[in-house]
Design goal:
With 281 residues, this protein is an alpha/beta fold. Helices cover 43% and strands 13% of the residues. The strands form four sheets. It has a three-stranded parallel beta sheet with strand order 1-3-7, with helices on both faces. A three-stranded mixed beta sheet has the order 4-6-8. Helix 5 packs across helix 9 and helix 6 packs antiparallel against helix 7. The longest helix has 16 residues. The radius of gyration is 20 Å and the shape is globular.
């Protein structure tokens, strides 16, 4: 990427990273337990994740930042918090589809920092014009309880589909982490009631559970002073959830009921291996 920028004569590179680079607790490296319940305020001086951090998403974000920082480019690194909003049908958007299909087992009771994608986009434009070369800026948003987020998602499911679905329960962090480990050990997700769902819509592996369970809020003072960044408000998060639901649930994006052999797996909660053994018995 850096070489391509040189070849094209790019004047300024804006790297979109993530606040996920700031997960420093040493007891979390092994990956068996969710993050500490202590809420952390993250800023650009917070300790960073180690090079051998077990969460691939965090580690790869750290690697890309180091590659850009080692280059001779005019660059700026932006670190948004949890982005939510229009056209999201693979990240938080998949939660809405899973809820609409009653496939979401549970969600941790925690507080994350959500930012409207529109505010992130505006932050990129402002940083490109007014940001300082070689600097890193956090683009934070509004602290938001996951339980409140689920309530907003449920309301939008009723608005769009005209039906009420099963609300996921708040599940202890340790239990969710163990369930994530079980999912990685098996060929199939034993918790997914629709085994023919797209891979992107499967229930959560433990890396995703870790990121969902991290208690944090952010400080965007540096970006505010440098180029007038305005963090997302509570109302902005509500609007982002509404726009995200319109994207995730429109055009019949929900997974249809299973048919054929998939319907047998669904009815009797069989894995592919178990079904294969029955058919060849």
């Amino acid at each position: 990427m850096t070489q391509a920028c040189r070849n094209r004569g790019v004047k300024r590179l804006i790297l979109t990273s993530s606040i996920a680079v700031y997960f420093p607790s040493t007891h979390e490296r092994q990956g068996w337990f969710p993050p500490t319940k202590k809420r952390v305020i993250l800023d650009e001086n917070s300790p960073r994740a180690p090079d051998d951090f077990w969460v691939n998403y965090c580690r790869t974000k750290c690697i890309q930042e180091k590659i850009v920082q080692a280059s001779d480019l005019d660059y700026i690194i932006l670190q948004p918090s949890d982005i939510i909003g229009k056209h999201d049908d693979r990240s938080w958007g998949r939660l809405i589809r899973m809820m609409a299909e009653c496939r979401l087992v549970g969600i941790p009771r925690t507080k994350l920092n959500f930012v409207n994608v529109t505010d992130v986009a505006e932050g990129h434009f402002r940083a490109a014009v007014y940001g300082t070369k070689g600097e890193t800026y956090i683009l934070g948003g509004c602290p938001f309880q996951t339980t409140e987020l689920i309530s907003e998602m449920m309301a939008n499911i009723r608005r769009i589909l005209g039906v009420s679905t099963c609300a996921p329960k708040a599940v202890p962090l340790l239990l969710l982490s163990l369930l994530g480990c079980v999912q990685e050990w098996f060929d199939d997700d034993p918790l997914d009631s629709q085994p023919n769902a797209p891979e992107a819509d499967k229930s959560f592996p433990r890396e995703t559970i870790f990121l969902l369970s991290s208690q944090h809020t952010t400080c965007s003072d540096k970006a505010a002073k440098a180029f007038g960044y305005q963090p997302t408000t509570h109302a902005g998060v509500i609007e982002a959830v509404r726009e995200m639901a319109d994207t995730a649930l429109s055009y019949n994006r929900c997974v249809p009921p299973p048919t054929g052999l998939a319907s047998i797996r669904h009815k009797y909660h069989l894995t592919k291996h178990q079904l294969h053994k029955l058919l060849n018995a």
